[in-house]
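User: Hi! I'm working on a homework problem where we have to compare a predicted structure to a textbook description. Could you give me the structure for the chain below?
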Amino acid sequence: MQRLTFERDFDLPADQVFEFFAEHENLDPMFGAKVTRLSDGDDGSRNGVGSCRRLQIGPSPGFEETVTAFETNRLIDYRVTKGSPLKNHLGELRFTEIPGGTHLQWRISFDTTLPGLDRLLAAVLRRRISQALSQADIAALSSA
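Assistant: Happy to help. Predicted structure tokens:
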């Protein structure tokens, strides 16, 4: 089982940081993938529980992730639900207000069906998400 944790503090209020990460289409650079919304949430929220996105990384077959828990300005959990060699996958984003801004903790855990693939995917995710988080300018992207 691979377990990755990413953390970043933003000089922005929790509602703005949460809104950015809740929008599926904003996740393209985080994964180095084309992200397409497949459905809105079942709970009356566009990005809430039941909302689903498709991620396409290069020429590989795409896969789907579905939001499984959603508390505005606090948390987003999601799982791979279709088309991936990942198993036991869980993504968790936690948003905490701190003086002058918001702390994000993003945890991802997974196994794979192919031996050794988990380590390769973990290395790719670690590099891509770390780089994307360090460069994320949510204020500029949110106002675009």
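For your comparison, note the following. The mean pLDDT is 89. The chain has one domain: 2-143. Good luck with the assignment!
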